[in-house]
Design goal:
Layout lengths: L2 H24 L8 E5 L24 H15 L3 E5 L9 H10 L3 E6 L7 H9 L4 E4 L6 H8 L4 H19 L4 E4 L2 E2 L7 H10 L4 E2 L2 E2 L5 H7 L5 H17 L8 H5 L1 H4 L14 H4 E4 L4 E3 L8 E2 L5 H6 L1 H10 L16 H12 L20
Parallel strand pairs: 1-2, 1-9, 2-3, 3-4, 4-5, 5-7, 6-8
Antiparallel strand pairs: 9-10, 10-11
Length: 375
């Protein structure tokens, strides 16, 4: 993403911050969505033990043309914006790269969160880079193949992902395209002791940033294998402080210190800290589900459908008004990195973290202490 584009999106976030303050302090609603997500598929080709997407029955999804129409409608109302595509697994949707290319051709910025398996196919890696992403987030839980494979439900998947990353990096160089490559580990009982080592390994294997996401209680497997509790919470707190120290020294950890320190509260099912209130997700987020439903927060009902309404109609509907009122009263501690609210300063820091040249990142650890790249 060019600096001019970043500046334009920054202006939108500044406007959004002012509108949120006006809503919270005076009850005047001039908000508009500034954070847009697109779940292009509920389906997934991985079987992550702490996820239920691959266990769900199939439901009809929006067509590629419906996605293009929804994106064009949003641009007509909001101007240029950034959309983060997710799933399920986005690359299982036939035509996903047509949607991404539509973003490129129409001045929209896009990123994707993926399990990374698709990039082993060189054509997919080539076409993804050609679509000019702003960021690619890849879900990797551990530098140890056995831990990653077990958590993700696909043995030996780490080697496939690393092969795909090599294809992406080769295409970046061949096409002269720059984008952030972010590793997104889910933090759980099987990996929390080695998170600092995972950061170092991620950098050596091409990551420009690491964005952690604590596991949530979605499946029965979470309580059985992945939830962190008891004496382990003290060890987790120590790992967090080590991550914070690394971050202050320049490690490319995307999460804020506030979010990192909230992990222990999360694993004790605590409430959001007062300094993080009120929740602003309903004032800024437009989350398009694979079926066309629109939400801000998954804990509340949908308030529109892009296959039946324009984005402006959805945002101004009575259901959306009620949604904004309800979400600002919520005290749930939400640490999903795709949903946790961020200040303008947080976003600036995130951009600086993931856009720095990779060689700058290694100042925070002596080279001899960094693990060697994967074979």
């Amino acid at each position: 993403m060019k600096l001019l584009d970043m500046a334009g999106l920054g202006v939108k976030h500044l406007r959004s911050a002012a509108a949120e303050a006006l809503y919270i302090q005076a009850g005047v609603d001039v908000t508009r969505p500034v954070t847009v997500y697109g779940e292009v598929a509920e389906r997934c080709n991985y079987k992550c033990r702490y996820c239920d997407h691959w266990r769900r029955p199939y439901r009809d999804e929006m067509s590629v043309d419906q996605w293009k129409a929804a994106l064009d409608d949003l641009k007509g109302w909001l101007g240029a914006f950034h959309i983060e595509f997710s799933g399920g697994e986005p690359y299982v949707k036939k035509g996903f790269l047509d949607i991404a290319s539509h973003c490129r051709d129409n001045g929209l910025h896009w990123g994707v969160t993926t399990n990374g398996g698709a990039f082993r196919n060189k054509r997919i890696a080539r076409d993804t880079v050609a679509a000019r992403p702003s960021n690619i987030n890849i879900s990797i839980d551990s530098h140890r193949p056995d831990v990653h494979g077990h958590a993700r439900g696909i043995p030996d998947s780490l080697s496939d992902i690393l092969e795909g990353i090599a294809n992406l990096k080769a295409e970046q160089q061949a096409q002269g395209v720059n984008f952030a490559l972010v590793f997104k580990p889910v933090v759980h009982k099987l990996n929390f002791r080695e998170l600092p080592q995972l950061v170092a390994w991620a950098v050596r294997n091409g990551a420009t940033g690491v964005n952690f996401q604590p596991v949530s209680r979605v499946t029965a497997d979470v309580d059985a294998e992945f939830w962190i509790d008891g004496p382990d919470l003290e060890v987790l707190a120590e790992a967090v402080e080590q991550l914070i120290a690394m971050k202050r020294q320049g490690a490319p950890i995307v999460n804020s210190e506030t979010i990192l320190r909230a992990w222990t509260t999360h694993f004790q099912d605590g409430k959001a800290p007062k300094e993080a209130m009120p929740c602003r997700i309903g004032l800024r987020t437009f989350f398009i589900r694979a079926t066309g439903r629109v939400e801000s927060c998954w804990m509340y009902p949908a308030f529109g459908d892009v296959t039946q309404q324009t984005a402006r109609e959805i945002w101004s509907s009575p259901a959306a008004v009620e949604h904004r009122r309800d979400t600002t009263k919520c005290e749930t501690l939400c640490l999903f990195t795709c949903l946790s609210q961020k200040t303008i300063l947080d976003r600036v820091k995130m951009a600086k973290t993931v856009l720095r040249p990779t060689h700058d990142h290694e100042a925070w650890l002596p080279p001899e202490e960094l693990p060697a790249p994967a074979e």
